[in-house]
Each structure stands twice: as C-alpha cells, then as structure tokens.
Design a protein that fits this description.
482 residues; seven-stranded parallel beta sheet
Length: 482
C-alpha cells in the first residue's frame, strides 16, 4: 500500500477495508449504500496492479450501475498513473465493438485492461462467452461482482454463468450493501462465487440443513420442504467475518453529511423512438394513433421527462405507457436500502405506480403516499408513522411540491429521486426533509437518470443554479448530484 498513490483520499473505514483485504484472493465488501464500496474495489485493483499481481479486471454490475463505473467511478478513483483500456459491454454485435473487444482480449497492453459488463448480459450465451474469453486470455485478473444479491438465485442462468468464471479468475470480490435481502440462504451463491471454502459448504442443501429449520409440507398430490426458521446464525456470522467487511453509514464518522449517487436506466426502444421524435419535431405519434404536441418549451420538457419515466398523455388526455426499466431499478435500490427511505416523484401516475410496486414487493403496510390526492386529515398521521422506529412503514412516496416543505422525515437515511424538476427550491427543500435537526446519521441521495436525456440536463441546471447561488453568497462551491 505504501507504493500506491490514492487519487481520492479514502475515508477511515475505506482504508481499514483495504488494509484487511487488498491482497486477499477473495473478499466480500458488505458496505451500505453511500459508504464507497466501489472506491475500495477500484483501489484494490490499483494496488494489485502496482504489485504486478493483475493486468486485467472484469466488473459485473446491474444495468443501472454499470455505466456509472465507466463514466463516474473509474475516472474519479483510479489513479491517472495507471494506463487503462476500458471497454463497456454492448448488446449489439456492431463492428466497432467487435474491434474494441478484439483489442481488449487478444492484444498486449502496457496497462490495466478493464471490461465492464451488465449483470443481465451474463444471462445470455453471448455475454457468458465474452466474459470467459476475456478471462481465459488475461489470466492475471480480478473479477468484481457489484450488487452481488443479483446472483443469490442459484438456479438463474446468470448465476450459473458467473459461477463458471470462478475457475478463470485469480482474485474475486463481491460488493453489496444488503447481502441478505429475504433470507440467510441468499448468502450461499454469493459466497460460493468467492470460494467453496468461504462457508465450507459445497452443497446448498447441506448449507440449508445447517442454518435453516425445514418442515415437509403437503399440498394436494405435491410435497415440498418449507423453511420455517433459522438457527446457528452466530456461527454463520462468524464465518462471514473471516472474509468480509461490514460497514454501515452510522459507523462512519468522517463521511460527509450528504452523499450523492446516480443510477442509470437506458431508455427502451419504444421510449427512445418517441423521445427522439418529441425532441426533434415537438410532437410524437403514439402507438394508439393519437398525436401529442407541445405548445411551449416547458410542455416539451415535461413530455420528454414523462417519456423517460415511461408514460405520456396524448392530446386527447389518454395515458400511454412505454416498456421501461425505471421501476425495476427503483425496486433494486430499495432492496439495498437499510431502514427507511423517501422516494420523490414529479408525476401523479408515477407516485401511484411506485406505491403499488413497493406494496407488491414489501407488503401493503410498508408504503404510504403523500401527494395532492392524499386527504389532509391523513397527512400528519403518515408522517408520525414514518417517524416511528417501531412502525412497519418503510417507504414514504411523495411529490416534492406537496411533501417537500415543512414536514420532518428524519427516520430516513436514503432519499431517492425518481424524477426531478428545474426548481432548485423544491429540490433543496425536499432534500432537507431527511437532513434537518433530529437527523443523527448521514443521508444518501440517489437520482435515477436516463443517460443522454432531459434527466441529465435537469441535474446540470440544478448544479449550475447552486454554483451561482454559492458564488453570490461567497460560499465554497460544492459538487452535488455527482
């Protein structure tokens, strides 16, 4: 570590994790969202490269995150003294991408080769073959599986294909803030990717028999085993301590009070088509044959943003929806969240759809909505339930114009922006519902963004407004929404 020059100074908990793990053949970074596990993984790669242990890295990350590795995390944290050849996985077989892959896989390179793939690509034969070929021809490597709960299902194709990479990898890391989302059984596949010796179980059923209470159930002609409880969890926790580092925001005294991150969700084909038409012509012909036109710049901006969110109203007032991955990304983020979270959305339709999706995933008592249609007499009761640590209410889903002022929601340490507006006051006021007197923890703000769209322009405009305000007031400029 003494030879390695950090590009960004690590926090104490990051430095401790690096001291414990950088040279380990396998390790798990169980670090809560906002505590910087990506930086720890990148500095691990940097240290191993400077120690001449690796010259290649495969990063596997969900769709909403893997672009951020290329655009944000690697440029921010990996030292400029390390020459890199970075290739981002493409679902198409375009010639330019094939040329990039040929160079990355087969040609000698005096630096660090980095192949960034989205987890979903490992469900396909083409994606599985590309990852295996890369590792086979670059054996001095490290494989990083970000948000490793995506491989908790041992029967899924992507889990099987990622498991096949274990024998081709020299070093392995898994990263997640919530390794156990539903059951301690979630740990088996994640840890098996690291090593058979991590938990000392080769069989899932042996692992289950050790740590779960199972009863045989009969339903008609069918019988099956059902998990009814768990046991020996202290023993399991002790095993995890040998090869993992658990970090919670509340334990990180030197973290900034506010931390910002983005999750990227590319537009679907249908969204992209309508978005380009709306942008170019200020109108789009929707699937139902009706025309949606824009009468002003503000209306156009609103409709572009609605398309990014997966819906739009035509000129007859009919709601038209598009296939999109935004809600799935939101659910994935909520799986990672420790404790309670606030979700802000601009549009009523989104609020209703988000609430229903969360109820389906986490149960009806876990969600409350706070927007124009919420009866006035129910609003204070919703806030009180959310603030109650013993309450089952975990997710506050609201519109910033309605809930972004005056109320206290300090029970949350995660705030998710499903969509934003250009109004800086609304953004700052809604941020401060969680970050105000009574908040004793750090707060993480997550913006869901469709790349190269109005989403990015809105965040840029908000940042410019903040910079202007801070310049006028003589304050130090802060990079928010980064």
């Amino acid at each position: 570590m003494k030879k390695y020059k950090f590009k960004t100074k690590p926090f104490k908990h990051q430095e401790q994790a690096l001291n414990e793990s950088w040279s380990a053949k396998y390790y798990a970074l169980f670090m809560e969202m906002g505590t910087g596990k990506s930086k720890v993984a990148l500095d691990t790669m940097g240290m191993l490269y400077w120690d001449a242990q690796i010259d290649a890295a495969l990063i596997i990350s969900p769709k909403g995150v893997y672009d951020n590795w290329v655009q944000g995390e690697i440029p921010t944290h990996l030292p400029d003294t390390i020459t890199t050849n970075i290739v981002r996985w493409q679902p198409s077989s375009a010639q330019w991408f094939q040329k990039q892959m040929k160079t990355l896989v087969y040609e000698k390179f005096n630096g660090l080769k980095i192949f960034v793939m989205n987890t979903e690509a490992l469900s396909t034969p083409r994606g599985a073959a590309a990852s295996q070929t890369f590792l086979e021809h670059n054996p001095k490597n490290i494989v990083v599986v970000d948000e490793s709960t995506t491989i908790k299902n041992r029967a899924a194709n992507r889990t099987k294909n990622i498991m096949a990479l274990k024998g081709l990898s020299k070093y392995r890391r898994i990263l997640t803030g919530s390794p156990v989302t539903r059951s301690p059984m979630d740990l088996f596949s994640q840890c098996m990717f690291l090593s058979t010796y991590a938990l000392n179980f080769k069989s899932f059923f042996a692992f289950q028999n050790r740590y779960a209470l199972v009863q045989k159930r009969t339903m008609g002609p069918r019988s099956f085993n059902e998990i009814v409880g768990y046991r020996r969890l202290d023993e399991l926790n002790g095993k995890l301590d040998d090869f993992s580092n658990r970090v919670l925001k509340e334990d990180c005294l030197d973290l900034p009070d506010k931390m910002y991150t983005k999750r990227f969700v590319p537009l679907s084909e249908e969204q992209n088509k309508s978005y380009k038409e709306m942008k170019r012509l200020a109108l789009t012909k929707l699937a139902n044959g009706e025309l949606a036109t824009t009468q002003s710049v503000l209306t156009q901006i609103m409709r572009l943003q609605q398309i990014c969110c997966g819906h739009i109203q035509d000129d007859e007032g009919n709601l038209v929806t598009f296939p999109n991955g935004r809600q799935k990304e939101l659910l994935d983020i909520c799986e990672e969240v420790q404790g309670k979270a606030i979700i802000w959305g601009t549009y009523t339709y989104d609020i209703q759809q988000i609430a229903q999706s969360l109820r389906d995933r986490f149960g009806p008592d876990a969600v409350a909505t706070y927007y124009g249609a919420t009866p006035q007499e129910e609003r204070q009761e919703i806030v009180e339930r959310f603030q109650d640590k013993e309450s089952s209410l975990r997710f506050f889903v609201g519109q910033p114009r309605t809930g972004g002022y005056g109320i206290t929601l300090t029970a949350a340490t995660t705030v998710i922006y499903y969509s934003n507006s250009y109004d800086l006051e609304i953004r700052l006021q809604s941020e401060d519902r969680a970050h105000r007197i009574g908040q004793t923890n750090k707060v993480t703000y997550v913006d869901i963004v469709a790349p190269d769209t109005i989403d990015e322009k809105i965040l840029k405009a908000l940042q410019e407004k903040i910079n202007l305000a801070q310049t006028v007031l003589g304050e130090e400029t802060k990079a928010l929404f980064a």
